[in-house]
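Aim 2 progress. For DUF3398 domain-containing protein, the working sequence is reproduced below.
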Amino acid sequence: MTAADVNLIEIVEPLDVEDILSQRKNSSTIYEHSASNSNLRRVAEFPVDDVEVRLVHRDQQTVESPVPANLSSCSVDPVVRDMIRTYSDDFSLVHRKYQQYSSGDAYVRLLTERPIIAQTAQKQIYEVDSERTVGRSVSTAGEEQMMYVYVKIKS
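Predicted structure tokens for this construct:
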């Protein structure tokens, strides 16, 4: 290619990234597999009755309310008004029925049960470990192995 063949003034159209990504998505088999497999989708979605939200009445600690009754009509900064409502509104209590099956709780249970399982499990002794007697110090064990090798080579 020579310098005469390249036009430096010609404007190049930019790539349409959305079109390229949608074409790749349509041609990929990964998306088709996950969309067609309804069993995986059913497991991924949480049950309808999992979350229960209840309002718990907040008891007022004083005889008269410290918050003015016409708070919304007063010329109070909206941030201050929201803070006052936060401290005077009822509590929202969220209860998750199936929380013990969530991955976070299962991981905590695994961490607490792991030492118990390690203590109660029977220790496995392999043939390699049972044939060789290991001395109390590393140097003794090394000398025994060296003598064994020396005897084998000599004989």
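The beta strands are 51-56, 91-96. This observation will guide construct design in the next reporting period.
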